[in-house]
Design a protein that fits this description.
The complex is a heterodimer of chains A (129) and B (562). Chain A has 129 residues and is α/β, with parallel strands linked by helices. Chain A is 43% helix and 22% strand. The chains are: A alpha/beta (129), B alpha+beta (562).
């Protein structure tokens, strides 16, 4: 039974990057990847139905309009149980602290170590294979 | 003789001398008067004696002429007898004062004798010779009596004159002696008083003179003896005032010198403060330059970071994809002829190599960007109270093994001069570790570079690490015996991207980040001293008390976060 991951980033190339990195997992029906280019789009997608079951949201922090930390707060209001991982190029303390305060499940610095990310995802969702 | 002026003293002395003179003169006058009285009496006596002798002579004439007249009855004899008698009477009158009774008796006898001679003359004239002789005999006996009495008076008078003369002589001698004694006494008295007066004036004058001499020599603490002589007391007071004014002048001079010294000291202090201020200003300018360069660096890094991430991510993905492609295409490739297959393999191999190079260089670029971003980290670590020696030693081991891992030929002698009993200090351990790693890495590099360049088998690369507790701060010195840093590039050492290492070996960011960590985050200082060809020493100075109060070590750096 596949599960969904929502990736929020204003850079369109991020979608390609994730698709290529998760090529094997999507082909094997482990994950279904969903993308949003802004926080507001992400909230729209969250309001509608995401199939199959959404298990995690990965969000960039620095985005035009609503930023990732504001999005985190919104998501926690609507779906407190849904894990949110923050992805950012800036691994500074201030951001880490605010992300942790906002209830982020993890804080991943770019460039993303995809092997590490996949391990964290399996920990969140439990062993899939 | 207290409080008597010199004038009064001299007047007093003059009066005294005059009195002595007058006294001695009076004594002399009295004696002279006495003597002159004596002489007058003597003269009177002499005159009386002469009268008495004259009376004796006149009586001799009288007796002769009276007898002659009686015998001769000559008128001329009678006349001579009368003349003698009147002379005798006048002489007797003159000496009657000596002994009136005897003189009167003599007068009576003379009358009797002349009367007897006249009667005898009468008798003779009457030729009564017997009667005349008898009468003459009577007259002659009277003559004898009278002569005897006159002799007695003359003798008495002469005796008195001699006695009188003796008395006068004695008195004159006494007067001379008295005059000599009085003169000597008066002289002695006068000399004594004069000496006393002079002494009473000269003693205080000499004291004053000594005081003046002392003051002239510059001995101002001399005593001013009080004097009973008002004039000298006035001079002493004047001298005292002079001395006081000299003392005051000296005091003013000393004060002026002290003030001058104070002024000089103040000027020195001010100059020192000015140079400190200039140094602080230079530091501030340097710090500002560093900060703006840091900001610029971080800004550039931010902009490069995202696209670089994509380059790296896609490059490493592509390596995997190419692998998959090769596997998937393997059966198809196998059916190709030899030459074509080799061409495909070659192209595929080159592509893989290129992608690997992109990944490799991308990682290098990413490291640089990460270092650049370190300039903008908003304090990634927290302050902790740590053992400085342990932190330094840990960093040293890490740096040493890291260097050994990179280069098998690397070696260096490590000398650890860690200070004892250094109290724990609050700092950000990760960041200070980074600083020390950087300093040690540079030192290793410099020392080994020299070893390579000198070709001297005896040269031993050495690193000395010294730690020291200086109370309000700690100090870490990292010294290498490498080739040293030329003076002209010391200013640039802490600038971002300044590096003396060949391209690819250093980012030029190590010292600039260390500088920020030490000066901004830890409020410390980092200095370098070096002699080219001998050594380079970095001194890091970290103040204590950083975690106390409201001080936030990351406050300076937050503004850089994008």
């Amino acid at each position: 039974m596949p599960v969904s991951i929502l990736i929020v980033d204003d850079e369109p190339d991020v979608a390609d990057l994730f698709r290529q990195q998760f090529r094997r997992e999507t082909r094997d029906d482990v994950y279904v990847l969903h993308f949003a280019l802004s926080a507001s789009e992400a909230l729209e997608r969250l309001a509608g139905d995401i199939e199959p079951q959404l298990i995690v949201i990965l969000s960039d922090i620095n985005m035009p309009g609503m930023d990732g930390l504001a999005l985190l707060r919104e998501i926690k209001k609507r779906r407190p149980e849904l894990p949110v991982m923050m992805l950012t190029a800036y691994g500074d303390d201030e951001r880490r602290r605010r992300a942790a305060e906002g209830g982020a499940a993890d804080f991943v610095t770019k460039p993303v170590d995809f092997d590490f990310l996949k391990i964290r995802l399996r920990e969140l969702h439990g062993p899939l294979i | 003789m207290p409080n008597i002026s010199i004038r009064l003293r001299l007047i007093f002395l003059s009066v005294l001398l005059l009195a002595i003179l007058a006294g001695s003169s009076a004594l002399l006058i009295r004696e002279l008067v006495h003597d002159s009285q004596s002489l007058t009496e003597e003269a009177k006596l002499v005159s009386v004696v002469r009268n008495a002798n004259s009376a004796s002579k006149h009586f001799g004439d009288l007796k002769y002429w009276a007898i002659d007249s009686a015998v001769t009855q000559l008128a001329r004899s009678q006349q001579a007898a009368d003349l003698a008698k009147s002379g005798l009477d006048s002489d007797l009158k003159a000496i009657s004062a000596v002994d009136p009774a005897v003189v009167a008796a003599i007068g009576g006898e003379v009358y009797t004798m002349t009367d007897l001679a006249r009667q005898a003359g009468v008798a003779y004239s009457s030729d009564d010779s017997a009667a005349g002789n008898a009468l003459l005999a009577q007259a002659k006996s009277r003559i004898l009596v009278i002569e005897d009495q006159i002799d007695k008076i003359v003798d008495g008078l002469e005796q008195r004159a001699v006695a009188r003369r003796d008395i006068s002589t004695r008195q004159a001698e006494l007067a001379v002696k008295l005059a000599i004694a009085g003169g000597i006494g008066a002289l002695a008295l006068a000399l004594g008083f004069t000496a006393l007066t002079v002494h009473s004036i000269t003693v205080p004058l000499k004291q004053l003179d000594r005081s003046i001499a002392s003051i002239t020599r510059g001995e101002l603490n001399v005593a001013m003896p009080p004097s009973g002589v008002p004039e000298i007391a006035a001079m002493t007071r004047t001298l005292g005032m002079l001395r006081d004014s000299l003392i005051e002048r000296d005091r003013l001079e000393r004060e002026r010198q002290r003030a001058q010294m104070e002024t000089r000291a103040a000027r020195d202090t001010a100059e020192a403060a000015l140079s400190e201020l200039k140094a602080a200003q230079a530091n501030l300018i340097q710090a500002e330059k560093m900060a703006s360069l840091g900001q610029l660096t971080a800004g550039i890094a931010h902009e490069i970071k995202n696209p670089l991430n994509f380059v790296n991510n896609f490059a490493s993905l592509s390596v995997g994809l190419l692998d998959e492609l090769n596997q998937a295409a393997a059966p198809a490739l196998a059916s190709l002829d030899e030459r074509r297959r080799r061409e495909v393999d070659e192209a595929s191999g080159m592509l893989t190599g290129n992608l690997q190079r992109i990944v490799e260089h991308g990682k290098r670029a990413d490291n640089i960007v990460k270092s650049m971003l370190a300039h903008s980290r908003s304090g990634s670590g927290n302050l902790e109270s740590v053992d400085l020696n342990a932190l330094v030693d840990e960093s040293l081991n890490l740096a040493y093994h890291g260097a050994r891992a990179q280069d098998q030929n690397f070696n260096i002698t490590l000398e650890r001069a860690y200070g004892k009993n250094i109290a724990p200090i609050a700092l950000v351990p990760q960041d200070m570790t980074r600083v020390f790693l950087n300093l040690f890495g540079n030192a290793f590099y410099a020392a080994n570079k020299r070893r390579r360049e000198t070709n001297d088998g005896d040269f031993r690369p050495t690193l000395t690490v010294t730690t020291r507790d200086v109370g309000k701060a700690v100090e870490v010195r990292v010294r290498d015996n490498g080739s040293g840093i030329p003076t002209e590039i010391r200013d640039k050492l802490f600038q971002p991207f300044f590096s003396t290492k060949p391209t690819g070996e250093g980012t030029g960011l190590g010292l600039s980040i260390s500088y920020e960590i030490v000066t901004k985050q830890h409020r410390g200082t980092i200095d370098v001293s070096s002699i080219v060809g001998e050594f380079t020493e970095f001194a890091v100075w970290l103040p204590r008390g950083l975690g106390e109060g409201a001080l936030n070590p990351s406050a300076e750096l937050q503004g850089h976060a994008g």
